[in-house]
Amino acid sequence: MRTTYIAKREEALDARRWYIIDAQGKVLGRLATTVANLLRGKGKPTFTPHVDTGDFVIVINAGSLKLTGKKTEHKLYRRHTGYPGGVREVVASKLLSSKPERIIQLAVTGMLPKNRLGRQLATKLKIYAGADHPHAAQQPQLISV
Fold this sequence. Notes:
Blueprint: H1 9-14, E1 18-22, H2 28-40, E2 56-60, H3 71-74, E3 76-80, E4 87-91, H4 92-98, H5 100-109, H6 116-122, E5 125-127, E6 141-143
Parallel strand pairs: 1-2, 1-6, 2-5
Antiparallel strand pairs: 3-4
Helix pairs in contact: 2-5, 4-5
C-alpha cells in the first residue's frame, strides 16, 4: 500500500528558491496566477496544501503593467476606513500611477488561501515599481510569464 507524501515544515524551508518576474507589459491576471502558484508551491512534487512549500517571488517593473479591456477606467478598488461613511474608492488607472505595487498585491493575495497560511505566503512576495531590487544576494532566477 502506498502512502501520500506530506511535506514537513522543516523540509520545505530547505527547498525554497527565489524567483524574479519582470512585469513590463504583462497582463495583471496572468501575472498574478503565475505568482500565486509559485508562492504556494503548486508546481513542486512536494506540494502539501496545509504547509508552506512555496518559493519567494520578486516582481519588478510593476509600474508598466497592463490591464485588458476598459479596466483602467472602470475597475474600482474599494476600502473602508472604519468610520461611518468611510468607503473610499479609487479607479485602477489612478492606483496604477500612484501605487502600482498595491494592484499586484491585491490580485495575488486574492488568489491565496484566506487564513493564516495565506497571510504567511503573502509575506514572501516582494514587489517593486522600478527595475531595481535589494535581493541580489539571494541570486533569484528569472522566470518568463
